[in-house]
Amino acid sequence: MRLSRYFMPILKENPKEAEIVSHRLMLRAGMIRQQSQGIYSWLPLGKRVLDKVNAIIREEQNRAGAIELSMPTLQSAELWQESGRYDAYGKEMLRIKDRQDRPMLYGPTNEEMVTDIFRSSVKSYKDLPLNLYHIQLKFRDEIRPRFGTMRSREFMMKDAYSFDLTREGAEHSYNKMFAAYLRTFDRLGLRAIPMRADTGPIGGNLSHEFIILADTGESEVFCHKDFVGFDIPGDGTDFDSVEGLKAIFDKWTSLYAATSEMHDEAAFNAVPEGERLSARGIEVGHIFYFGTKYSESMGAKVQGPDGKEHFVHMGSYGIGPTRLVPAIIEASHDDNGIIWPASVAPFDIVVINMKSGDQACDDTCELIYAALTKAGKDVLYDDTDDRAGTKFATADLIGVPVQIIAGPRAVANGEVEVKDRKTGARETMTIEAAINRFVA
Known about the structure:
This protein is of the alpha+beta class. Helix content is 32%, strand content 28%. It has 13 helices and 23 strands. Strands 3, 7, 8, 9, 10, 11, 12, 13 and 16 form a 9-stranded mixed β-sheet that branches. Strands 20-19-21-22-23 form a 5-stranded mixed β-sheet, with helices on both faces. The protein is globular. It starts with 20 loop residues before the first helix and ends with a helix. The mean pLDDT is 95.
């Protein structure tokens, strides 16, 4: 992509409305634009990152056996009235009527709709277990949307819903998502710590929030320091192994970890003083087992091996991609801008032409750009006529992991400079060597 032809509206000044680092940098880098309170457009640079985040989420959901579908954003109020949540949900639900005066709503979540899909199609235990997920825009009319897309009214959510014949089967489905979430956040460059969450009136103890540690986190969290060094489940994780997944779950829940809402001061003080970690945290995922709450109210039953009908046990599993992007920035930035993990960077490499119009610089940059693009790399080529300082500032701001810098003096010697955005390390090498490093 040539920067001269790309839409990336950079802001030179810090926006006054941005309270936290991620909101400020996303606006400055031209990733998002606010359309109204708590509602944003994702501009090209931001959408590239969002798409890569979603791709990783999809890969790990699919690996764990979940199956993707797509449900509508507008839902019939009848389903929510059937479950008993229509009147109870509160003002966060956007209620509307269609031209036939039928009550509708802009979905804040999809338990009712996915239960309706399940009950109309699945009748036998032989079709279980089943986990259905989608990635969709949702709307909750937050009383105080803030922090950019960290807490917005319209947001994107990956929500998955599991269906099992028994509680034991549902726990295995829960453990699948537990391991998948650990893998997902790790691939996004985040260390997420699962913390026991409040299950509310449903009861039980199967609910976990996945929290990343960040200075600008929304709430205080408390945990054992060893979580920071725990091994993430590997590529060879067997998601059909009940024992293997239970072992992962047991390990990651063996030490103290709690948000401020669930904090037990006495239990935390029982952790050796040098092992206690108190910090700010950002919730990036939430998994929840809720048993037969929706299947009983909506009649979602299957015939069991005993020939009798049984209400299915369900769980829900959420990740907010539009929340994850600013969370990654909160965890990975410096004074100059964003530092993207390679897995979600909008571009792999930015080629910076220090003197556009200089034949040697132009030819060198075109050569590098063509070679890396042909090799399958996402390359941004800064071919603008901006000053060198502006080009460096832009490259640092948008956080592309690798910068290849071509200036007249270096090019005259058959060389370019390669900079690592994260470490700031610079290395001068031949043009051929620079190409080979990233093509090989």
